Amino acid sequence: DDLVGLNNLVANTAYLKAQHIDRSELRQQRLSLTLPRPKSSALRAAADNQYESLCEQQPIGRKLFQQFLQSSNPQYVVAAEFLEELSDWTFAEDQTKEKAKWTILTKFCQPESRRFLSYLTGENAKICKALSNKNFDGVMLDQIKVATREFLKGKPFSEYLNSPFYYKFLQWKEYEKQKISDQNFYEFRSLGKGGFGEVCAVQVKLTGQMYACKKLDKKRLKKKSGEKLALLEKQLLEKVNSHFIVNLAYAYASRTHLCLVMNLMNGGDLRFHIYEVGERGIRMERVIYYVAQITTGILQLHSMDIVYRDMKPENVLLDGRGQCRLSDLGLAVELPKGKMICQKAGTTGYMAPEILKQESYRMSVDWWSLGCSIYEMVAARLPFKDFREKVQNEEVTRRTLEDECKFEHKRFDPATKDIISLFLKRKVEHRLGCRGSDPRNHVFFKSINFHRLEAGLVDPPWVPKSNVVYTKDMDKFAETSEVQGIELNDNDEKFYMEFGTGAVAIQWQKEMIDSGVFDELNDLGLNGYDCVTVWK
Ligand code: ADP
Ligand code: MG
Ligand code: MG
């Protein structure tokens, strides 16, 4: 027993220490790093890409495009600065917002100013000149913003594609394609267990970046025919790029496992916080904040025609700052517009009536499960199942279809009761979130500025302690035995190749920037003087 305790302590210490790594030491190890030359096929493929992806969504692409703008025509600089200031104004509050407004008016809207937006023409130029302290609204600014982006998409963008900055970008893209294996990571303690293997903390050797790695046992996958599902989960994870859903950074195959490397959520899952930390249940201020982030995450999935189908506190994880994300897209499915599904999927106690009755459904089921989850965060039990109650699934189904939801816990206030009741409407057409009703407008969220929340600008009401590991001790995870009698063949290898696509662009580029590697390699100057000959 002492030995188990000691093992746990050692594992926790190593894991916590890795999170506070000295970055200058890593820098020393990276001194000899250089970027590869792009292959010519990469050049053509990348040039087919759109402005949005190249210059806005991909973090390194965005940086290099901005650097290009700063180094060229003064008009380009003005356009870039205007978009920056406009974004500040959009997200600012009170005095800062007033100040941003004043800056926009004096800098960019006065024809005699050096920074006047002189690339605007026709209607847009008129609007810009007409803006004033009294006449300053979001719709007009939006129109000028659209016009500014149209301007950048034209001549500036095509000049960028022929500049050394873009060559540099292609070098980074080439580097991004490197093969990924176990060798790229240090591995730390296990954080949880799933159906096909464990999730552990890992650290990228090159950058010191911490992630969580979900390791799916190849043999177990094959035995339970879980390969298709694993691939689906990977493809969905890499497609969604959201503050409120765990992002995928790498997907690769080791000799024994398929590995999904995702944001490290070291603040624990909400189930843990409801039942295992302090008094049961979660304080209202925190509930509202988490539910706001969850709602935004669900709306983002739905906007991509994805049903989550596994909304429950256990699948909502907190990061080190105390912000939450949805995880485990293992049950999620993409349903193209108009398509319905009637497959039974979800967790007992959270499943909507339409699933239990085996009717066809779309996005509605996630709002029902969210209603159950809010109830659970407040009352530390489910609406139709008490905590640790031993009860048959059939009985939970019966209660879900017939019983009234009771609010006996003292912490239910009127707004909370109301939003839960609206999410728990048995008829889909009456349920909040369905038929075009937007849950974000409910009074439950009156303290939340969703605009700022989405931009990650609202401070969490509670921050996890940096010296605590918010998960069960390692020996509490059940042992899993090795899978017997399964042989892997060439067909399996083909599938592993399809799964192991390596780095995922946006997250990987963010890692390069956050860790300082991007600046280090860019500081070497633009060694792209030979680029023109390379790619013409
Ligand atoms: P499964 O699909 O097999 O249920 P999950 O994706 O839910 O697997 O992961 C299993 C457990 O691992 C979770 O319940 C959670 O405790 C932990 N876990 C999963 N993803 C992360 C992450 N990104 N950061 C930290 N812990 C995680
Ligand atoms: Mg899970
Ligand atoms: Mg799963």
From TrEMBL:
Domain Protein kinase: 185-445
SMART domains found in the cross-reference section: RGS, S_TKc
Database matches in InterPro entries: GPCR_kinase (IPR000239), Kinase-like_dom_sf (IPR011009), Prot_kinase_dom (IPR000719), Protein_kinase_ATP_BS (IPR017441), RGS (IPR016137), RGS_sf (IPR036305), RGS_subdomain_2 (IPR044926), Ser/Thr_kinase_AS (IPR008271)
Keywords: ATP-binding, Kinase, Nucleotide-binding, Phosphoprotein, Receptor, Serine/threonine-protein kinase, Transferase
Keyword Hydrolase applies: no
Gene Ontology terms, MF aspect: ATP binding; rhodopsin kinase activity
GO biological process: regulation of signal transduction; signal transduction
SUPFAM superfamilies in the cross-refs: Protein kinase-like (PK-like), Regulator of G-protein signaling, RGS
Record: active site: 310
Enzyme Commission number(s) from the entry: 2.7.11.-
Residues reported to bind ATP: 214
PANTHER family from the UniProt entry: G PROTEIN-COUPLED RECEPTOR KINASE/RIBOSOMAL PROTEIN S6 KINASE, RHODOPSIN KINASE GRK7-B
Protein name: G protein-coupled receptor kinase
Species of origin: Scophthalmus maximus (Turbot)
